[in-house]
Structure formats: structure tokens, C-alpha cells
Amino acid sequence: MEHFTIATVAEKSPDFRRVLWTGEHTQLVIMTIPAGGEIGEEVHEGIDQILTFVSGVGEAQVAGEKKKVAAGDLVVVPSGTKHNFVNTGPNPLVLYTVYGPPEHADQAVHRTKEEADAAEAAGEDEPPTE
């Protein structure tokens, strides 16, 4: 059994992205977006994403709509939808997200957005194929 006190685990992680668990159909990832930072505009084809915010404040940009987000908020991003999440506060924006199916390499850890982008560009952040 996998068990996480997810808000505590997410709050303790300084990493931009850390994959906590990967299953056949879903993946659990925690993220910490620094003040002034963002996830970066993206589209996941064939992958739904659910993001739950643990601390900090930010702006969700989904399908051309913008909405403020804070601790306790949840945002759903359906497959094929352009999205970005921006930290608009002075403290880190901390969240956990579930991808279905998995989006990242199992157990991937990216300390910064730049490291995450480089791993993706190099093909080193591919989800498991089986």
C-alpha cells in the first residue's frame, strides 16, 4: 500500500517536480513553483490532469480562461487543453497533481523548471510504456 500525507509531503519538497507514484493508468506528482515562476504553457494530448493546491497563491490559465488559485483549490485540465499555472505570490506555490495516464518518467525528480525542460527536450522524461 502506498500512503501519503500529501499536503505535508508536498510542502516539504523544494523540487519543481517530483514523481511520487506511477501506476498503469495514473501518476501522482508534487510540484513547487517559486515566486514569479510558472509551469509553462503546455498541452497534454491523451492525458487528463487534476491539480490540487496546497499553499501559496497563483493564477490558473486553462483554455483561455484565467482564475485565481489558492490552498484547497482544485483545477481539472482535460486532455488536449492548453494550460499554464503561474505563481503570483511572494511564497512558493505548492501543489500535487494526478495525470491519467502517466506523463513523466517514474521517480523523476527535477529541482528546477530549467532542469525539467532540459530532461523533456533530451527525451529523458518519458512515462513508462507498460
Sheet with the most strands: spatial strand order: 6-3-8-2-1-9
In total, the number of strands is 9
**DSSP helix count?**
2
- Judged by helices, strands and strand pairing, the structural class is mainly beta
User: Given this structure, which CATH class is correct?
Assistant: Mainly Beta
Taken together, the total number of domains comes to 1
Q: Portion of residues in helices?
A: 10-25%
GO molecular function, one term: isomerase activity
Region (Disordered): 105-130
Keywords: Isomerase
Domain Cupin type-2: 30-99
Please tell me about this protein's structure.
With 130 residues, the chain is mainly beta. It has a single domain (15-122), classed as Jelly Rolls, CATH 2.60.120. The chain contains two helices and nine strands, in the order H-E-E-E-E-E-E-E-E-E-H. The protein has a six-stranded antiparallel beta sheet with strand order 6-3-8-2-1-9. Strands 5-4-7 form a three-stranded antiparallel beta sheet, with no helix packed on it. Strand 1 and strand 2 form a beta hairpin. The longest helix has 9 residues, at 113-121. The relative contact order is 0.27.
Which features would summarize this protein structure in a list?
Jelly Rolls; 130 residues; six-stranded antiparallel sheet; single chain; mainly beta; three-stranded antiparallel sheet
